[in-house]
Amino acid sequence: MILMKKEIILTGDRPTGNLHIGHYVGSLRTRVELQNSGKYEQFVMIADLQALTDNANNPQKIRDNILEVFLDYIAAGLEIDKTRFFLQSQVPALFELPMYFSNLVTLSTLQRNPTIKNEIKMRGFNKSIPVGFLTYPISQTADITAFKARLVPVGEDQLPMIEQAREIVHAFNSTYGKEVLVKPQALLPQNQTCKRIVGIDGNAKMSKSLNNCIYLKEDPESLRKKVMSMFTDPNHIRIEDPGQTENNPVFMYLEAFVTDLHFEKFLPEYKNLEELKAHYQRGGLGDVKVKKFLANVMEDTLAPMRERRAKFEDKKDYLLEILKRDTEYAKEITNKTLNEVRSAIGLNYFTDNKL
Ligand code: ATP
Ligand code: MG
User: Fold this and answer.
1) Strand order in 185-187's β-sheet?
2) pLDDT band at residue 127, thresholds of 50, 70 and 90?
3) What integer pLDDT is reported at residue 3 of this predicted model?
4) Domain extents in the chain
């Protein structure tokens, strides 16, 4: 019998804070589905090195968030015996590969990367950009290619990173004449709203760094408060006024999370989101009613996550053991790719007996 090698999936998250519902609909929910399909070998990386690129003076923050992010993964539905979890900084191939890849990328390509440009502005780096930050797309290419991952389930902000990775793979394979590296592909969520979830303040992206998040570990009371404080259509002043559902964060979150079952359970006078939207658009439906419904939908979504999280919250030693075990496995896999890369370039002086 020929055993087909399973396709490989790699993703990661920066341990700069707890994961939020943007991470969930943008990437984690897809990872859970892929994991449960049983068709793939999935690696999930806690990207502590990437987190250092803009937190060099605050390594304690990164330390504090490593197991927090692991707990968020478990809360989201990733499982210890179905997915591999590892720590980026403990896998040497991931910081050797960028050395080789960086020779294949120009400064202007990095400077043109729209996500990097935007993040530089957000962080106020402007004229003093840390080199490590500017080059993190190269390091991310190493993370993906070291595992020969073909699929990377991500939100829209990551498209330029995947494109950069594809260019590096092309440059590497054509320069060194071997099909060593695999071109990765982004796997975006189907639902347009989920590709980039807006913040509760209406800002274009919910982001740990912008303080506009609903976290997966949010407790019921603060969840309700956050939802009730959300930004909606600013022109929908009186209940009778017609309202906009497009670009309205409350409706965007409903698009990302609501099911017809939620209507049955919490708002049976409407069958589905289409009916609710139509009422809002023609006027006569108040924001408070929609927000209360959204709060129920979110609570229904986050409650099972809190339960899964609670089962592991006081088992930190166990989580650390798992992280260690899977990191060892990640080292083995990535060292194989590293060896292939070194031989493709011809750096295997001591083993090829040709010098
Ligand atoms: P930071 O502010 O530290 O950069 P972040 O909130 O942007 O944090 P990352 O760790 O950079 O989170 O992103 C991890 C993954 O989650 C990526 O695949 C990214 O595309 C996805 N993601 C992050 N924010 C959102 C969002 N608002 N909507 C959809 N996907 C998102
Ligand atoms: Mg980010």
Assistant:
1) 84-87, 40-46, 7-13, 151-153, 185-187
2) confident
3) 64
4) 7-196+316-345, 220-309
Q: What angle do CA 90, 102, 164 make, to 5 degrees?
A: 95
| Ligand 1 in reach of 155 Cβ (< 6 A) | yes
Write the residue with the smallest CA distance to atom 7 of ligand 1: 207
Q: Which residue has the tokens 């760094």?
A: 209
Q: Is residue 50 lining ligand 1, measured as CB closer than 6 Å?
A: no
CA of 271 to the centre of ligand 2 (A): 36
What is the C-alpha separation between 22 and 205, in angstroms, rounded?
A: 8
Judge if the beta carbon of residue 29 lies within 6 A of ligand 1. Answer: no
- Please tell me if the CB atom of residue 119 comes closer than 6 angstroms to any atom of ligand 1: no
pTM of the model: 0.96
Q: Does domain 220-309 have CATH number 1.10.240.10?
A: yes
Positive or negative, the Cα torsion across 16, 18, 23, 29? positive
Nearest to 58 by CA among 172, 183, 209: 209
Report how far ligand 2's centroid is from the alpha carbon of 203 (Å): 14
Determine if ligand 1 sits within 6 Å of the CB of residue 26.
yes
- In sequence order, which ranges of 151-268 are alpha helices (DSSP H)? 159-175, 192-195, 220-228, 249-257, 260-266
Handedness of CA 206, 209, 210, 215 (dihedral sign): positive
Find residue 186's DSSP bridge partners.
Answer: 152
What lies within 8 Å, CB to CB, of 194 at 6+ separation is 25, 26, 29, 155, 255, 256
What CATH superfamily classification does 7-196+316-345 receive? HUPs (3.40.50.620)
For the CA of 13, the nearest ligand: 1
Indicate whether 354 pLDDT > 70. Answer: yes
Closest-lying ligand to the alpha carbon of 157?
1
